[in-house]
């Protein structure tokens, strides 16, 4: 069984969009961490732009689903945290430029 890499997981997460903002969760800086154990179980720690995000359930399920599609992935756990809270400074340079940050 080939080991799943953090890079593969991050690429999959780039396909998960916050439809309210129109950017993927990686570019927005919403992914705080990716852990992969010896059995290719993946834990993604992420946040949302706001705790009141109306798309929270959809975004979390989409993230889990996209990671689950990676060949070799066993179990996927997406943990939501708001500590530390998200700020626009966590976004990629491209997103910051578009938002004028």
UniProtKB/TrEMBL annotation:
Matching Pfam families: FeS_assembly_P
Gene3D superfamilies: Fe-S cluster assembly (FSCA)
Domain MIP18 family-like: 6-78
PANTHER family: FE-S PROTEIN MATURATION AUXILIARY FACTOR YITW
Name used for this protein in its record: MIP18 family-like domain-containing protein
Classification lineage: Bacteria, Thermotogati, Thermotogota, Thermotogae, Kosmotogales
């Amino acid at each position: 069984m080939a080991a799943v890499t953090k890079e593969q997981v991050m690429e999959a997460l780039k396909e998960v969009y916050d439809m309210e903002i129109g950017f993927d969760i990686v570019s927005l800086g919403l992914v705080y961490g990716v852990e992969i154990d010896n059995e290719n179980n993946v834990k993604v720690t992420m946040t949302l732009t706001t705790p009141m995000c109306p798309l929270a359930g959809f975004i979390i399920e989409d993230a889990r689903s996209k990671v689950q599609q990676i060949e070799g992935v066993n179990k996927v756990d997406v943990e939501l945290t708001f500590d530390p809270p998200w700020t626009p400074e966590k976004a990629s340079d491209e997103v910051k430029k578009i938002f004028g940050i």
